[in-house]
Specification:
alpha+beta; globular; binds aspartic acid
Length: 625
């Protein structure tokens, strides 16, 4: 039989009680985490958001409470009234923050019962994620999840405060709107009032934030929900949250300073310092040194080992002498058997026109000097796994060879990217052996003991880096066309504008990415603020005047009404939280996420709708049953 709450008021949270509270009369409310029945004594671990306290139901002291204690089960909701007392020396539990005390109950109210869920929040690890997602309300009770959304709150609050202090106004933009060109598929919402017409959910607030600059708002930010109909990955959800901002009259450096400040504030709020300013690298150098535009600085980069080989060596090894020859090194992997090496082969991207040599023993037989030199150049210690990646003349990709003074060609980029991907994949696979990620895991674990007042050093665990000077266009192998590497409002470098149509490959974009520990955290750019340039960009992207007008006419119009130079950026909030939570999937830091198959298992969405709803929306479903 259940009790009413009546006039009972909670006095404390379970996790907050300490030895200093001994002797106090308290009222606690929460969920039964565990129950242990010792006959005349029943122990309940009572859990709320703050933690767990032990309740003792003594048959002598409270026969009624003891009786109820016999009936309660895990996840029942109860209120306990009683006195805090110190546990005996042999009963203290140093692993629990409240381990020195317990509550000698004089009354227990059972406020609600609970069905037996397929798992208990008291369990450490639950294997089946689908079950977790279906019973998300139970899953979210787990201390680990409670910690994650507390972390998310603290980070978000600090970011808001920092941006507000830096003169940014938080402004909302529409959810029901028109397509934004971020390169993904739109989610469409049919209009009941306008038959056959659709709103699109924003892929980002991009156009609106630019219009806010035209509106004289000067500095805008929003913790903005964005929607992109893409295939899901560990770091990608259909809807996600960006810290989105835009500012008027900025230089790139101004945007960097704003971001560095708010990100450092977000990290500090959860007890970790992030030294500023962040280092910078050009896109070309990032490709040369890491083979990716989101480098993980915790691992050794690529080494140019072309000098280790003579031209004859390369000819015999069937390596393209005109393309990069690089070594990647994964420390401390130890010797691998042929079988082990073969298992790695599928991790190499075959489509980049590159090949690899991972059998050093064999290489050393034919090319002793070169093999030794490669290991020397790569700084390889005894147990380090070294792989050479180079252009494969037998598999030339159809890429552009256009080459500009000091810049990489598409084909070179492909070889570096093949090496970079392989490096990333192998580093993940052999994480236990090289241990380069341990410092991050350790920092995340230790940060719980720290706060904004007493933050710990995060400089070895987190490595932010700005990537700058991206090419404006990239060559799309499938369509054999130059396609924009960024959204079409990104400004080219003023110096490169003359080449937009004649030499697209040479044009650099005035945009920037922020990467951290191998993950892209955000990207932004200085925007086009002149209509003539915007039109030219659309033209070079093959978007006709009519098409541009139909899709972004309102924006092109707005550009003509006094547009200030402006620029901005958006950072993935979920990803920031994921890094600081030490999570490997966004689902751990989003309360109600979708599965990899784009389903909300708890709400059971998406779902069919009634014929009446379809009719109102003027929609007929053309599915063959
Ligand atoms: N709208 C861009 C994005 O969502 C960010 C930006 O350019 O500010 O990636």
């Amino acid at each position: 039989m259940l009790d009413f709450l009546g006039s009972l008021e909670r006095t404390h949270h379970c996790g907050d009680l300490r030895a200093a509270n001994a002797g106090q009369q308290v009222v606690l409310m929460g969920w039964v985490n565990r129950r242990r029945d010792h006959g005349n004594l029943i122990f309940l671990d009572l859990r709320d958001r703050s933690g767990i306290a032990q309740i003792v139901l003594d048959k002598e002291l409270t026969p009624e409470g003891h009786l109820k204690g016999e009936q309660v089960r895990p996840e029942y909701v109860v209120a306990a009234v009683g006195k805090v007392r110190l546990r005996g020396a042999d009963a203290t539990n140093p692993k629990m923050p409240t381990g020195e005390i317990e509550i000698e109950a004089t009354q227990l109210l059972v406020l609600n019962d609970a069905r037996l869920a397929p798992f208990s929040p008291a369990e450490e690890a639950i294997q089946n994620e689908e079950v977790r997602l279906k019973y998300r309300y139970v899953d979210l009770r787990r201390p680990e999840m409670q910690r994650n959304f507390r972390l998310r709150h603290d980070i978000t609050l600090a970011i808001r405060e920092s941006l507000s202090n830096q003169g940014f106004l938080e402004i909302e933009t529409p959810i029901l709107t028109k397509s934004t060109p971020e390169g993904a598929r739109d989610f469409l919402v049919p209009s009941r009032v306008h038959p056959g017409e659709f709103y699109a959910l924003p892929q980002s607030p991009q156009i609106f934030k630019q219009i806010l600059m035209i509106s004289g708002c000067d500095r805008y930010f929003q913790i903005a929900r964005c929607f992109r109909d893409e295939d899901l990955r560990a770091d990608r959800q259909l809807e996600f949250t960006q810290v989105d901002l835009e500012m008027s009259f900025p230089r790139r450096e101004d945007v960097f300073a704003v971001v560095e400040q708010f990100l450092a504030a977000g990290f500090k709020a959860v007890g970790v310092t992030l030294p500023t300013p962040f280092p910078r690298i050009t896109y070309d150098d990032a490709m040369r040194q890491f083979g990716t535009d989101k480098p993980d600085l915790r691992l050794p980069g690529l080494t140019d080992v072309r000098p280790a080989f003579t031209d004859e060596n390369l000819a015999t090894l069937q390596i393209d002498p005109a393309l990069p020859v690089v070594a990647l090194r994964v420390p401390n992997v130890g010797e691998l058997s042929r079988k082990e090496r073969e298992d790695n082969w599928p991790l190499f991207d075959q489509k980049k026109g590159a090949k690899f040599i991972d059998d050093f023993k064999r290489l050393a037989k034919g090319f002793a000097e070169a093999a030794a030199k490669v290991r020397e150049l790569a700084g390889a210690a005894e147990g380090d796994f070294v792989i050479i990646v180079a252009g494969d003349p037998a598999h030339h990709v159809k890429a552009s060879d256009t080459k500009f003074e000091g810049r990489l060609s598409e084909r070179e980029i492909n070889v570096y990217a093949a090496a970079g991907n392989f490096r990333t994949e192998l580093s993940k696979k052999y994480a236990d052996r090289h241990g380069a990620f341990d410092v991050t895991e350790q920092t995340v674990a230790d940060a719980h003991e720290h706060s904004a007042q007493d933050p710990m050093d995060g400089s070895t665990a987190f490595h932010p880096i700005w990537i700058v000077d991206f090419p404006m266009f990239e060559y799309d192998l499938a369509s054999a066309k130059w396609v924009p590497a960024h959204h079409p409002f990104t400004s080219p470098y003023e110096a490169d504008m003359a080449n937009l149509v004649s030499d697209p490959a040479s044009v650099r974009a005035n945009c920037y990415d922020l990467a951290m520990n191998g993950m892209e955290l955000g990207s932004g750019s200085i925007r086009i603020h002149r209509k003539d340039v915007q039109q030219q960009i659309f033209k070079s992207l093959g978007i006709s005047d009519e098409d541009a007008h139909a899709r972004f006419g309102f924006f092109l119009d707005a550009l003509e009404y006094g547009t200030p130079p402006h620029g901005g950026i958006a950072l993935g909030l979920d990803r920031i939280v994921m890094l600081l939570a030490g999570a490997s999937n966004l689902r751990e830091v989003i309360t109600f996420p979708k599965t990899a198959k784009a389903i909300d298992l708890m709400a059971e969405a998406p779902t069919q709708v009634s014929d009446q709803q379809l009719k109102e929306l003027h929609i007929r479903v053309a599915l063959k049953s």
